[in-house]
């Protein structure tokens, strides 16, 4: 499928007058339509709730849009909890799905009334010692081990992942938690990431629903919810077929009716913790071509770098690139599109066929709305960009300003040299 940017060259000509490149741009209309479709797909389940994975796009303005549709927050750190609290998402609207959790994070999660999702059986004692009690509602993260396959395709390798409890441990954990006063239980698992197939959630649901029936029978606890977590992916490459959320929702419904309903568990709520699926296609990184270089290869240097988007450098991830205003030109030039870091992996594309690029052209790097800005860092002292919201009415709103050198040097403010750097 042809990948089209959600913004036009003409709109960008206007936007860059106020916000110089590079910046991340988000599509309010796309975000709203997508969350509506998700809710609709799971509307068969009265307790259904999406807890947006804050780490994907930790911006309060964007979380606030999702909140309008009843979304909660999936947090796994102190600052993510703070952010959730600040936008008014509190209590059981927070799912705290952390791992290797520091004590002070459990303290804040408990203070905010979050649902705590325990990553390990040893955390029961740690939590009880830390907060002085076991919450009435509690969740445990499950890891069945082995390989997670759909037909013969290996989706991911849970046996090699640090998360969750084994089958034996989760049963033991439920018994211990029940004996300590827990009343409502949840089960969570995240077994494959960025799945571009309608079969992942239904397959995962089957694993979790069967566990839920077994655990309810074995331990006598009441299972309130099953959390399918994240993992629904998006088509980063033009040849991939996008997921159909209605087919996914319906697939989960069928497994629910096949496994849970006959076991008398038709009151179980389905929760999700989607990140990528909620935001990735509705964000892009807008950057300008500033250098061309003809050596052993053809290079285009842009004003963004891996600090703004790490996935290509970190995972070799493909992000589609549109050269704005040349969407219909032939892709008859082969380029490496690079950033300015002193790291040879700072390339947004390698050997990519694109239209002929002139200096000053805007490049839109697609699908950066999740795990894009948020993975950013400050290597080479490069500063993080602004985030801008393209609103439904076509106007723009700044939703995070760009970093300045003063932000970068702020942690020297307690030293004499800090004064010099901050007054520069
Ligand atoms: C990262 C993460 C998610 C979101 O994953 P996506 O692939 O972005 O959907 C959900 N839950 C937990 C616990 C995570 O760590």
TrEMBL record:
<dbReference type="Pfam" id="PF02784">
    <property type="entry name" value="Orn_Arg_deC_N"/>
</dbReference>
<keyword id="KW-0210">Decarboxylase</keyword>
<dbReference type="InterPro" id="IPR002986">
    <property type="entry name" value="DAP_deCOOHase_LysA"/>
</dbReference>
<feature type="domain" description="Orn/DAP/Arg decarboxylase 2 N-terminal">
    <location>
        <begin position="31"/>
        <end position="280"/>
    </location>
</feature>
<keyword id="KW-0456">Lyase</keyword>
<feature type="domain" description="Orn/DAP/Arg decarboxylase 2 C-terminal">
    <location>
        <begin position="281"/>
        <end position="369"/>
    </location>
</feature>
<dbReference type="Pfam" id="PF00278">
    <property type="entry name" value="Orn_DAP_Arg_deC"/>
</dbReference>
<protein>
    <submittedName>
        <fullName>Diaminopimelate decarboxylase</fullName>
    </submittedName>
</protein>
<keyword id="KW-0663">Pyridoxal phosphate</keyword>
<dbReference type="InterPro" id="IPR022644">
    <property type="entry name" value="De-COase2_N"/>
</dbReference>
<dbReference type="InterPro" id="IPR022643">
    <property type="entry name" value="De-COase2_C"/>
</dbReference>
